[in-house]
């Protein structure tokens, strides 16, 4: 999967704060970019359903919106904490880290 | 008996079912295998849960029953038991905070509103601490409270959040989600979702005030005081007194909460702004409580509790809440009473004057079952 751009947003949580990032993998350190691409490949990200939201009773959980842009087009997945397996959790963690850094710099 | 959602440790059934029907061929095969494994694991876990629950139930009859688990920075819930009811404090402050916070929440609901735990029937209060690494959140998963340690994975100079058990109102907030789940069942989206959030802030704040024995004017009405590190320009995550003023920070941005209907935020994020627009009913409660004076859990809290317990429904909106709390105040304290006037003032000041049709005429002797009960609880004046 040749990723050109990623847009990430985390909303909700008890604090109700928005964390977001918009970046090109080429702007990341090499190792981080590789980890990110590997995770997206392992997850077959471009084949995932667009909506995998929280359980109805999952109060205060985070909702993640991830858009991955490739040469073929873009694919967006909306997902909650409760809907995520360990690999997806790793992707959330990595993208949240990148968002924190980006928000701090801006 | 618990039927715990298998979140995080394996793909949950609803997601696997999604993939099994909508995914690629390879994903479908993997999802079906996951569903099979999940069913097997759930069987084992169910057996363990039944065994543990039976063991606990013996000691849990009639009283408050708390259990704190440690996820050890993983995502498997509930984790390892680290403190049970009757056991001495742990060496881990986070464990003790979760234990004590759920205890004070139980006490408020039990002592003041005569509610025996979250479900009204003595449900054990389970909390998991040290959930994941760098998890800056706390949530109610439908069966238990879960607390992260903040962003402890970052260097001290970059940290924004402390551990989420640091603020007792956060714990009261999460447990109140449980009460709402059993009572009004407010849908977690748009206005009903914002009411769900507001109820959790209201009773979360009351838990803190009850612990500190603060009157409405003494209370800070801040949600999550102590949650931010010194790196953040803010006093907490929300202000019930002045929504929109809790923080204004270069990294986190500005508190987006409105305190009046004219500023209602229409958004698809955050389940339709459930943590944003909750500022409006939050402020209505604050104004009502300050107008009445004294301890907010007594009169204002009682009115809101009756609305949550008996009147609100899954799709109730802000105007419904205004009308129903107004009606509850009329039933509890009498039509035209200062309590009902205070409720009207609270909602009017946020742009939602209550429908005057609610309430009942007080009996000539100022009596009635609810009045008698309130006098017994000390929340209504003596005859």
Task: Outline the structure in words.
The complex is a heterodimer of chains A (106) and B (383). Chain A is 31% helix and 32% strand. With 106 residues, chain A is an alpha+beta fold. In chain A, α1 packs antiparallel against α2. Chain A is globular. The mean pLDDT of chain A is 90. Chain B has a 5-stranded mixed β-sheet, with helices on one face. In chain B, strands 6-7 form a two-stranded antiparallel sheet. Chain B has 383 residues and is α/β, with parallel strands linked by helices.
The helix-strand sequence of chain A is EEHEEEH
What sequence of helices (H) and strands (E) makes up the elements of chain B? HHEEHEEEHHEEEEHHHHHH
The largest pleated sheet of chain B is described as: 5 strands, mixed
Number of helices of chain A: 2
Q: Which structural class fits the helix and strand makeup of chain A?
A: alpha+beta
Shape of chain A: globular
Quaternary arrangement of the chains shown? heterodimer
Largest sheet composition of chain A: 5 strands, mixed
CATH top level of chain A?
Alpha Beta
Give the termini separation of chain A. 29 Å
Largest interface: A-B, 37 and 56 residues
Q: Report the β-strand fraction of chain A as a percent range.
A: 25-35%
Write the layout of secondary structure elements.
The complex is a heterodimer of chains A (106) and B (383).
Chain A: E1 3-12, E2 19-23, H1 30-42, E3 51-52, E4 62-70, E5 73-80, H2 86-105
Helix pairs in contact in A: 1-2
Chain B: H1 13-22, H2 25-60, E1 66-70, E2 80-84, H3 93-112, E3 125-129, E4 138-140, E5 145-147, H4 168-182, H5 190-212, E6 222-223, E7 238-239, E8 248-249, E9 253-254, H6 269-273, H7 279-292, H8 300-311, H9 318-333, H10 338-348, H11 369-377
Parallel strand pairs in B: 1-3, 3-5
Antiparallel strand pairs in B: 1-2, 4-5, 6-7, 8-9
Helix pairs in contact in B: 1-2, 3-4, 4-5, 5-7, 7-10, 8-9, 9-10
Question: Which features characterize this protein?
Answer:
heterodimer, A: 106 residues, alpha+beta, Subtilisin Inhibitor, 2 helices, B: 383 residues, alpha/beta, 5-stranded mixed β-sheet, 11 helices, 9 strands, 8% strand
């Amino acid at each position: 999967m040749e990723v050109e751009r990623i847009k990430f947003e985390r909303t909700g949580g008890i604090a109700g704060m928005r964390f977001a990032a918009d970046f090109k993998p080429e702007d990341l350190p090499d190792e981080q970019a590789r980890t990110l691409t590997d995770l997206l490949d392992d997850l077959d990200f471009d084949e995932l359903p667009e909506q995998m939201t929280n359980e109805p009773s999952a109060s205060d959980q985070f909702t993640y919106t991830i858009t991955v842009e490739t040469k073929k087009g873009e694919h967006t997945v909306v997902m909650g904490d409760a809907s995520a397996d360990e690999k997806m959790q790793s992707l959330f963690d990595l993208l949240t880290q990148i968002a924190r850094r980006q928000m701090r710099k801006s | 008996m618990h039927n715990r959602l298998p979140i995080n440790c394996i793909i949950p059934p609803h997601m696997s079912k999604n993939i099994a029907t909508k995914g690629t061929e390879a994903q479908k095969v993997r999802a079906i295998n996951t569903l099979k494994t999940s069913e097997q694991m759930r069987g084992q876990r169910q057996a363990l849960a039944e065994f543990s629950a039976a063991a606990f139930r013996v000691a849990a009859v009639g009283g408050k029953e708390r259990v704190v688990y440690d996820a050890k920075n993983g995502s498997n819930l509930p984790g390892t038991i680290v403190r049970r009811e009757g056991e001495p404090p742990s060496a881990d402050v986070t464990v003790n905070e979760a234990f004590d916070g759920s205890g004070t929440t139980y006490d408020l609901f039990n002592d003041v509103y005569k509610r025996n735990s979250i479900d009204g029937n003595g449900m054990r209060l389970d909390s998991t601490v040290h959930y994941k690494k760098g998890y800056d959140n706390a949530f109610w998963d439908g069966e238990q409270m879960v607390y992260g340690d903040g962003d402890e994975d970052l260097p001290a100079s970059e940290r924004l959040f402390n551990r989420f058990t640091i603020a007792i109102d956060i714990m009261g907030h999460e447990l109140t989600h449980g009460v709402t789940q059993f009572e009004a069942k407010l849908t977690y989206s748009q206005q009903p979702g914002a009411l769900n959030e507001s109820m959790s802030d209201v009773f979360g704040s009351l838990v803190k005030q009850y612990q500190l024995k603060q009157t409405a004017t003494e209370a800070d009405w801040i949600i999550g005081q102590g949650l931010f590190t010194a790196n953040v320009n803010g006093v907490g995550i929300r202000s019930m007194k002045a929504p929109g003023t809790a923080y204004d920070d270069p990294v986190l941005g500005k508190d987006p909460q409105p305190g009046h209907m004219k500023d209602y935020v229409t958004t698809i994020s955050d389940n339709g702004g459930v943590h944003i627009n909750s500022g409006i009913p939050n402020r209505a409660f604050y104004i009502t409580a300050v107008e009445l004076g004294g301890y907010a859990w007594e009169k204002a809290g009682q009115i809101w509790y009756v609305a949550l317990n008996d009147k609100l429904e899954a799709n109730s909106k802000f105007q419904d809440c205004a009308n129903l709390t107004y009606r509850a105040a009329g039933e509890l304290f009498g039509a035209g009473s200062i309590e009902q006037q205070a409720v009207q003032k609270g909602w009017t000041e946020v742009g939602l004057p209550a429908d005057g049709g609610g309430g009942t005429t007080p009996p000539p002797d100022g009596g009635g079952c609810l009045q008698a009960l309130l006098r017994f609880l000390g929340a209504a004046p003596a005859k």
